[in-house]
Design a protein that fits this description.
With 474 residues, the chain is of the alpha+beta class. Helices cover 19% and strands 24% of the residues. The strands form six sheets. The chain has a six-stranded mixed β-sheet with strand order 11-20-19-18-14-17.
Length: 474
């Protein structure tokens, strides 16, 4: 047996080490636990641990770049089950999808520390215990994971026990001051700057209780620092108290949708360009292709292809704002909005500009089906460069979509409508008008990245591909 044995467990950058050194081997063979979750424990000094066998800690991993907490929806293994690398230990609901917690090590499940269905489990929180020997499982029957600190033996000078922190003296409350009303020309009117009124509304502060320091007692934004929300400002529904209602708890997905879209509208200078395209030739081409295609090609698949090709020709639309620089992408990873029972998600067609229509159609059907089942993998909905959102199937003629940061553009697609248009080649005595199927789309752009003329040029290219769809086959 070597002088030091190192066991490493890795799960999405969550790493725990169990070290048995020369001094501790005797204790380990007698059933002692050696837990070195902290780097300071990776030493050879003799230490005595609680009487538990060696074990591996499994912590809540980060399964999404934006994940801060996760809901443990289901345990796929139970105490006593053997696990191998690649086995699914649990299903975790992140902010966008339900993701498998995949094992990287082998062993036996000794303890499940989080109940199935638990919400908002913090990243890094201990969720399960793994042991190598099945006979060690019984030792963890009453294990809670809350008392894992090692206790040093007499052979090692005891570290001074930190004194219990002295309770901080309560901060004296600010002396109550009777605030005289600002000088006002009439009644109970309160004078405040527009910014102060906006901040007061957001913070729930009653301006009548704030002393203004501006000219003639005017309340300015700085006066709201430290102001406490007023009970009178607490939101109260204006609906009658007898009106029936139901409160729906927010899912992780709904929380992240609310956060990201609010951030988008608050920080991104949106503007909108609408393009009308005749799609009779496109519909005819689609009908011919579907006679031979193994996967039925939809109008949306053709729009995905046309959008990607137009973005290649106007690369500013296939870029992202990075704070102090703009990143421009070589290929178009197309994010396609899909509605699910839990909210909106955007699976991605990678390198859509390089793929054929049949490939796009096949991938889109698979991604949309798994999105509705909450079974997308992380890399299938994270990292797109351009987005499309289609509401045409709901009878919507046109709309404007909110940009999905850090992308610079999103295309909102309405339904096609038959319109009466003048004939360009109408001769004397001939028909002056014709009927055509017209599709309206609106491109939302980030003005920090895409100028108006560039969005218009993108629209010209997009229109060219829709009205001459054979060009997409080149």
């Amino acid at each position: 047996m070597t002088s030091s044995t190192l066991k490493s467990v890795t799960k999405n950058s969550m790493r725990t080490y169990v070290v048995l050194n020369k001094t501790a081997l005797k204790s380990a063979s007698a059933g002692a636990k050696f837990d070195t979750s902290k780097g300071s424990n990776l030493t050879s000094s003799p230490m005595r641990f609680f009487s538990l066998p060696p074990y591996i800690k499994l912590q809540m991993p980060s399964l999404s770049p934006t994940m801060e907490k996760g809901n443990l929806t289901k345990w796929c293994k139970q105490v006593g089950d053997e696990v191998q690398p690649g086995d699914i230990l649990a299903e975790v609901e992140t902010d966008k999808a339900t993701v498998d917690f995949e094992m990287q090590e082998e062993g036996y499940v000794a303890k499940l520390l989080v109940e199935e269905g638990t919400q908002d489990v913090e990243l890094g929180e201990l969720v399960a215990i793994l042991v190598e020997d099945k006979d060690d499982i019984e030792a963890f029957k009453d294990f809670t994971g809350k008392s894992e600190a090692p206790v040093e033996t007499a052979a090692t000078p005891a570290a001074p026990t930190p004194a219990a922190p002295t309770p901080a003296a309560p901060t004296p409350a600010a002396p109550s001051t009777t605030v005289s009303a600002p000088i006002t020309p009439s009644g109970d009117r309160v004078f405040a700057s527009p910014l102060a009124r906006k901040l007061a509304g957001e913070q729930g502060v009653n301006l009548s209780s704030v002393e203004g320091t501006g000219p003639r007692g005017r309340i300015v934004a700085a006066d709201l620092d430290g102001a406490s929300p007023s009970a009178a400002q607490t939101f109260v529904s204006s609906a009658p108290a007898t009106l029936a209602y139901e409160d729906t708890p927010l899912t992780n997905m709904r929380k992240i949708i609310a956060s990201r879209l609010s951030e988008s509208k608050d920080t991104i200078p949106h503007y909108y360009v609408t393009i009308d395209s005749e799609i009779d030739d496109l519909l005819a081409l689609r009908a011919r292709l579907n006679q031979y295609s193994e996967s039925k090609i939809s109008v949306n698949d053709l729009i995905i292809k046309a959008s990607a090709l137009a973005a290649i020709q106007v690369p500013q639309t296939n870029s992202s704002w990075q704070g102090d620089f703009i990143r421009q992408f070589a290929d178009v990873d197309m994010s396609v909005a899909v509605s699910t029972p839990k909210g909106l998600i955007t699976p991605i067609i990678r390198e859509a500009n390089k793929k054929g229509l049949q490939t796009i159609a096949t991938e889109m059907k698979d991604l949309a089906a798994r999105a509705r089942e909450n079974k997308l993998k992380l890399d299938e909905f994270q990292g797109g460069t351009f987005s499309v959102s289609n509401l045409g199937m709901f009878g919507v003629s046109h709309f404007a979509a909110i940009i999905n940061p850090p992308q610079a553009c999103i295309l909102a697609i309405g339904g096609s409508q038959q319109r009466v248009l003048p004939r360009a080649d109408a001769g004397e005595g001939g028909d002056l008008y014709r009927v055509a199927n017209v599709l309206s789309v609106t491109l939302s752009s980030d003005h920090r990245v895409v100028d108006g003329a560039e969005a218009a040029i993108w629209g010209q290219n997009f229109k060219k591909y829709l009205e001459n769809p054979e060009l997409m086959l080149l």
